[in-house]
Write a structure and sequence with these properties.
This protein is an alpha+beta fold and 415 residues long. It is 48% helix and 11% strand. It is built from 15 helices and ten strands. It has a single domain, classed as Cytochrome P450 (Cytochrome p450), CATH 1.10.630. Helix 7 runs antiparallel to helix 11 and helix 8 packs across helix 11. The strands form three sheets. The chain has a five-stranded mixed sheet with strand order 1-2-8-5-3, sandwiched between helices. Strands 4-10-9 form a three-stranded antiparallel sheet. The protein has a two-stranded antiparallel ribbon with strand order 6-7. The structure holds protoporphyrin IX containing FE. Protoporphyrin IX containing FE binds next to helix 5, helix 11 and helix 15.
């Protein structure tokens, strides 16, 4: 049995921060391997890329999540006690709660709410000279997802809640004041969210039975007990936050329509291309670089030994652009999704494996449905110019967005 190849240097934290989307796949390629060992934040870590690596990463018996997430990410992005840190039967039970929200009709209802927002916002865009598209989408999605979840959102709170939810996913990985801003946002949001959970339990708030607020407030874990208000608050935010984060994918969709303008006409003429188009955006535009787990008990894979307790990082972006799985992987080619057989391990922008038994994102259908709705609206319902601006996606921030957040001008509604 051979040892796992090592990356250069003692610790790779800085190299990873400088090149979050390329570090793992490029190092693997240089070492001609699917995996290598290094230190991240001084902790020994095995980094892996590609579909074979994803398959082992998602084998429930080998790798677990408890204790794998850096504390600073838990205190901002995820919160403590949520589904992301559970394993085995406890995870499967809690995951059912999220999956019960993902019925086709329920997701269509959320899409309808966003389309309603678009119709409400578009006249205002027409009246303005310029529109910062990302800011508009974040606000629309905050309104839509709160309504969908049964969360009351007074008009006076819209801007604050939008900013707080954004801070959780934009500032989580930051160092310094932004990180502290994200912690404060989490503290305030959890207080708000826990109060609503209590109000539902006391009958003061009566959201519909199928709404996320009702489902989470009344959910019982394996021990038969309801979630503590704090954990229920974390789980409610696990629906609100990432749905607002879909704004990133939507701006990336607008970016792709601008960069590949020939697709606008194609999409107008053939509805069937909408899904391949947004899938290609999810594959090629960077969002989550990697996910983390921990070795439960020592095992061997491909002749390499994974010692107990070792942290393992799976490269999501590099797997989505792995030349072994994708022809011309860095080219934007939505057609590739027209006839592609589904494989749970090679297309993993929101994690891989099985939605029920693994940690794969339960919100994939929400993301796809929202992206399709906004994409269809951009190509069919409005015309706009894209202001001359730097449209490079700065990889200095996670997730990467154009510096000016995609400014549109001269928005006109089509007749
Ligand atoms: C903005 C687009 C989104 C991206 C890029 C994204 C990405 C991810 C990723 C990478 C994971 C981790 C997978 C793993 O650990 O193996 C995840 C998990 C999760 N996502 Fe999403 N997600 C998005 C949208 C959503 C939406 C709309 C929801 C709403 C329900 C959601 C809820 C969750 C939850 C609850 C988990 C934890 C699942 C578990 O631990 O079993 N996400 N997501």
């Amino acid at each position: 049995m051979s040892g796992i190849p090592s990356a250069e240097g003692f610790d790779s934290t800085l190299t990873l921060l400088r090149n979050p989307y390329g570090f793992i796949s490029q190092t693997c390629r240089a070492l001609d391997t699917d995996l290598f060992e290094t230190r991240i934040l001084l902790r020994k870590t095995i980094c892996m890329t590609g579909s074979a690596a994803a398959k082992v990463f998602y084998s429930e018996d080998k790798l677990v999540r408890q204790g794998s997430m850096p504390g600073r990410i838990q205190k901002t992005l995820l919160g403590e006690g949520g589904v992301q840190g559970l394993d085995g039967a406890a995870h499967q039970r809690r995951k059912k709660m999220f999956m019960s929200l993902m019925g086709t009709e329920h997701i269509a209802a959320l899409q309808g709410m966003s389309l309603h927002m678009l119709d409400n916002y578009a006249p205002d865009w027409e009246a303005r000279n310029e529109v910062v598209f990302y800011d508009e989408v974040r606000e629309m999605l905050t309104r839509a997802v709160c309504a969908w979840c049964g969360v009351p959102l007074p008009e006076a709170e819209v801007a604050t809640r939008t900013a707080q939810l954004t801070s959780l996913f934009e500032d989580a990985g930051a160092i310094g004041p932004k990180h502290w801003a994200a912690r404060l946002a989490r503290h305030r949001l959890e207080k708000w969210s826990a109060r609503m959970i209590q109000q539902v339990r006391e009958g003061e708030l009566q959201p519909t039975q199928e709404s996320a607020l009702h489902v989470i407030a009344t959910w019982r874990d394996l021990d038969g007990a309801m979630l503590s208000p704090k954990v229920a608050a974390v789980e409610l935010l696990n629906v609100l936050r990432p749905t607002v984060a879909v704004s990133v994918f939507i701006v990336q969709t607008a970016h792709a329509l601008h960069r590949y303008p020939e697709w606008q006409e194609k999409l107008r003429n053939d509805e069937g291309l909408l899904e391949p188009f947004v899938q290609e955006v999810r594959r090629l535009y960077p969002f989550f670089p990697a996910v983390a787990a921990r070795v439960e008990s020592a095992f061997e894979w491909q002749g390499y030994r994974f010692p107990e307790g070792r942290r393992v990082l799976l490269d999501l972006y590099g797997s989505n652009t792995d030349p072994r799985s994708w022809d011309a992987p860095l080219e934007f080619r939505p057609e590739r999704f027209r006839s592609r057989a589904e494989n749970p391990y090679d297309f993993i922008p929101q994690g891989g494996g099985d939605h029920y038994t693994n940690h794969r994102c339960p919100g994939e259908w929400i993301a796809i449905s929202q992206m399709k709705a906004f994409c269809r609206y951009l190509v069919n319902d409005i015309e706009y110019d894209v202001r001359d601006q730097d449209l490079e996606l700065g990889t200095g921030e996670l997730p990467p967005l154009p510096e000016n957040r995609f400014i549109m001008r001269n928005v006109r509604r089509r007749g």
